[in-house]
Amino acid sequence: xxxxxxxxxxxxxxxxxxxxxxxxxxxxxxxxxxxxxxxxxxxxxxxxxxxxxxxxxxxxxxxxxxxxxxxxxxxxxxxxxxxxxxxxxxxxxxxxxxxxxxxxxxxxxxxxxxxxxxxxxxxxxxxxxxxxxxxxxxxxxxxxxxxxxxxxxxxxxxxxxxxxxxxxxxxxxxxxx
Length: 177
Description:
This protein is α/β, with parallel strands linked by helices. The protein contains seven helices and five strands.
């Protein structure tokens, strides 16, 4: 959907903070599927944690991303997703799993995807993000290739204040609407 915008990129690059700032300005937002899944798995048996079984985690992330997409389908104004289906599909591909051939065609976001680059100065590991910056950088590189392979145009966000990043994104939206 043309009004669905994805924030993707390096783990620890400021996506969640950016999403909160967009919500603060009144935009509809959707939290990252992966963080929600990790929280549920940590409270449960942990079988689908990304550091335990990446393929199982990615499959759950695909299901959650599709549910998020469907839930937001009625919005006419911009909706911002912290990651989404394409990120989950990239994780599944990295884990060696197979994706339904038409899945990414059925659930299309706006062609522009806003990418947070690796930013060591703000990267922090936590209970839900146990990997290090080097793994985050590798994931970022995979996403920079995966998105264009599926018809998306990555827009790299500048390393600046949260408010300046929000203005950067909104400037891109105004230019295309």
